[in-house]
Amino acid sequence: MADLDMAMPVRERDGYRQSALVLGAAQLGGSYGIANTVGMPDDDATARLLRTAAELGVTHVDTARAYGESEHRIGACRVPSLRVITKVAPLGGVADAPDAVRAAVTESVARSRAELGDDPLTLLLHRAADATSAGGAAWDTLRGYADDGVADRIGVSVQSPAELHTVLGLPGLGYVQLPCNLLDRRWRDPALTEALAARPGLVVTARSVYLQGLLAAGAAVRWPHLSDTDRDTLVGTLDLIASELGRDGRIELCLAYVLGLPWVTSVVIGAETEEQVRRNVSLAVRPPLSADERAAVVSALPDVPGALLDPSRWTS
Q1: Helix residue ranges, H only, 30-160
Q2: What is the pLDDT of residues 72-96, one digit of tens each?
Q3: With CB atoms counted within 10 Å of each terminal CB, which end of the chain scores lower, N or C?
């Protein structure tokens, strides 16, 4: 863990500063991720985990109203230097009624603040569709929170490049969160990279860097929509590339690839233990892949089924 002596990179977008690694907190509200063998940490372990992240230079923790007790547990620990990104509860059945949408967003934010305290939050809509339905009532409500100082930045969590293109035109958009990993070729579309290059002040945080744990677990688990033979070949290829590039295994390779993308500000990675936080930080402080190294990775990897890249299409 010698790399823990290195400083955590902090990246700035129009005055908003965020560490290269953001702590994901879905695991604090329940068992989450295909590779989670520990389960939800208890209150003492949660407090240690959050304090360790802050001590190691992590600036933000990412949570949501939909993550069970996650907000409550973060708020109970009150780590002052750890800022909070949270997502509004999905709007569901009220999405077509403007008054109901505004009320639902207001209630969700009020509940988040009751759990997390009065410091400004980074507020995201949990679904891209929530930003445009009901005449944009949800987005207008978030803009009001930004104007009032309740939110230090507002944004949207998206699932695909098509959704990203849809929300990029939202007035006041300052933050997007999206799923991205080295197997997902969709994010290399030139139209998308050009659109993001035109928005240098936009914070782009990538989640699912390890494809919800599949890339970390490797051959130890079954992969949805991929045969065991193809899985083993892919994992072996990733391990070989990591060795050739002087990386500490495919986990570091996955992280260094995404952090090397010029439009990515940070990655959000969850943890169930303090040791996992230390391990993730030790990798995030290392240099990202260069453009040539990323190109070599892409050329060496096969195409994978689209269903593999979309956890909503996985079966239990």
Answers
A1: 43-55, 70-77, 98-116, 128-132, 137-148
A2: 999 999 899 999 999 999 998 787 8
A3: C
Could you report the per-residue pLDDT of 297-313, keeping only the tens digit for each? 999 999 999 999 999 89
Tell me how far apart the alpha carbons of residues 120 and 101 are, in angstroms, rounded to a whole number: 22
Q: Distance (Å, rounded) from C-alpha 260 to C-alpha 294? A: 8
Q: Considering the domain boundaries, does residue 298 fall inside one? A: no
For residue 81, is it within any domain? yes
| Domain assignment present for 110 | yes
Positive or negative torsion for Cα 288, 291, 293, 295: positive
Range list of H helices, the chain: 43-55, 70-77, 98-116, 128-132, 137-148, 161-167, 190-197, 214-217, 228-244, 249-260, 274-284, 291-300
Domain count, the chain: 1
The C-alpha atoms of residue 116 and residue 277 are separated, in whole angstroms, by 21
63, burial (CB in 10 Å: exposed 0-12, middle 13-18, buried 19+):
buried
How far apart CA 47 and CA 45 sit, in angstroms, is 5
pTM to 2 decimal places: 0.93
Which CATH number belongs to the domain containing residue 127 in this structure? 3.20.20.100
Q: CB of 121 within 8 A of CB of 85?
A: yes
Domain holding 191, by residue range, is 2-217+259-287
